[in-house]
Amino acid sequence: MKVFVAETAGFCKGVKDALEVTLEAVQKRQEGEKICTFGPLIHNRQVLAMLEEKGVSEQNHLEECAGKKVIIRAHGIPPHERQRLHRIDATLLDATCKRVAKVHAVIKKHARRGFHTVIVGDADHAEVIGLLGYAEGRGHVINRPEQVDELPGSWEKVLLVAQTTQNEEVFEEIRTRFLQRYPHALVKNTICDSTQQRQAEVRQMCRQVAAMVVVGGYHSGNTLRLADVARECGVPTYHIETEAELNRQDMARYASVGVSAGASTPNWIIRNVVQYLESIQPESSNLRYRLKRTLERLAYANAYVAGGAALLSAAAQALMDFPASFANAVMAACYAFAMHSLNIYLDRNAIELNDPGRAAFYHRWRPVFTGISVMALFLAFGLAMKSGFLAFLVMGLLILFGLIYAVPVILPARWQNLSALKIKDIPTSKTFSVPIAWAAVTVIAPHLSSLSTAFASMLYTFWVIFLIVLVRTALLDLLAVRGDRLVGRETLVVLVGERRTAWFLTGVLTLLALSAVIGPLAGFATGFAYVLLPVTAAYGYQLHRCFASRLREDPLCETLIESVLIGFGGLALLWIAIR
Ligand code: SF4
User: Rounded to 10 degrees, what is the CA torsion of 17, 99, 174, 214?
Assistant: First the structure.
């Protein structure tokens, strides 16, 4: 089945920011501090359960917030509730969306001048309740054009606004009727851009597809309206919370389906729906689908990791002008595969949130992965031993480091705070430890005997391999940022944010490009180092793509990122063959 995914599907800025404010509060929580949200932060049960697990409770009554740190969700609250929260000693963390706050300000300003405020929205929606609070008792809510005629005709000063997630067409109909009744009325279309774009894209999509699937909570107003928009376009529309609600036979009738989602629908749920829909068409008639599944399976099986490490080993040899060694490549592949596979089982939560399909794959193949990983470790050990005692020792340390990465290190009782420390919990440990380990296993471990004669060349190669793997790891972290944040895995992206990571990576890529030019000129590397220039450009493009794509967790994105490393290694093989 052909599936079109809306660019605008998923978290809007307000919801994304509110989730980030909450996760940051969890990260910085003081001992004994209680954190709660006033009302559900997001209309998604999986995320709410995860927040609950992290000690963020949902409170629906003001009294229950007494003495706690209270997160005001994106919808905002009326001013009297804010004052009451202050009175009962709650510490407020205001995650009211800036656009909602702007509507508050408009209503407040006009209420002070004696205006009556009419809000187009759902009277019992939290955002509308918040907006009404600023109308100084002269607020009214309507949601159908005919309700305009029920409003008192005697009003002179009157303002019309909308709930930020209102249906654009309904608002336009109401506005026309409203201006006929109140020609001097002030009308402000306060529907959020994000909502407008989402609805416009659904209308556009409906022209190309046979059916629409709208993903999001049944209580999510903006998702309900999105489904209404699709239905109004005359397209069969399915409003679902998860893919389990879709009927395979039913959906198989459509040659193409559009998928959009409400503002509080996480990407991993959208991805599951997309994957499910894509799997419906008979695989034999869909080459693109089969290709995508194959690439996905290769990523799940850690084939890119193993292949990438082996090819990096070849690249290291090409840079240092060392004789090609198949054994070194196998050693690097075995180490990388085993470490990645074993750590997946020690750190399942983030994978489940980022990519449930991948988590299910690992669960099904667990004995196979564990068995192959153990054999790979023995093989890596054996090959290191062949290179000498020092190589064996370095490999032992690298394996030990990899194995204890995600398990608690038990320290003496006097270091109580640190006694259950995991290396993976050290901020940015993953982002930096993977490149160090890969550079060590491809450059140091196999060539220790040459350290004294080729020190500068080995140091240079270690440096560039470290930079390449650092960019690759940070890009992969960018793909997985949502799940990592929720489980509290402190990658560089989680710690400093997506924008700063992008700047950091731009800096690293600049260093890589400079190293590509300086290495051969200074005699630290062969001319193969110039190949690092296109590698830098390819990673730069991937970085740009990471920010442009809304559905970042797609395994195809992962394949594209890994393909840079594989291409670099492939060129190294060519270089070695020609030389
Ligand atoms: S829909 Fe718009 S106004 Fe509402 S929370 Fe999202 S970004 Fe803010």
Answer: -20
The tokens for 453 are 């004669």
404: enclosing H helix or E strand: helix 389-404
Structure confidence at residue 419 (pLDDT): 46
Ligand 1 atom closest to the Cα of residue 193 is 2
pLDDT digits (tens, 9 = 90+) for 203-238: 999 998 988 999 998 888 889 989 989 988 888 889
Per-residue pLDDT tens over the stretch 287-315: 666 777 787 788 888 898 999 999 999 99
pTM value?
0.60
Please list the active-site residues.
127
Query: Shortest CA distance to 4 belongs to which of 216, 255, 242, 218?
Result: 255
Tell me if 192 CB under 6 Å of ligand 1: yes
**pLDDT for 81 beyond 90:** yes
Report long-range pairs for 239-247 (Cβ below 8 Å, ≥24 apart): 239/214, 240/213, 240/214, 240/215, 240/273, 241/215, 241/216, 241/217, 241/269, 242/215, 242/269, 242/272, 242/273, 243/272, 243/273, 243/275, 243/276, 243/277, 246/213, 246/273, 246/276, 246/277
Q: Is the CB of 191 under 6 A from ligand 1?
A: no
Identify the pLDDT of residue 423: 64
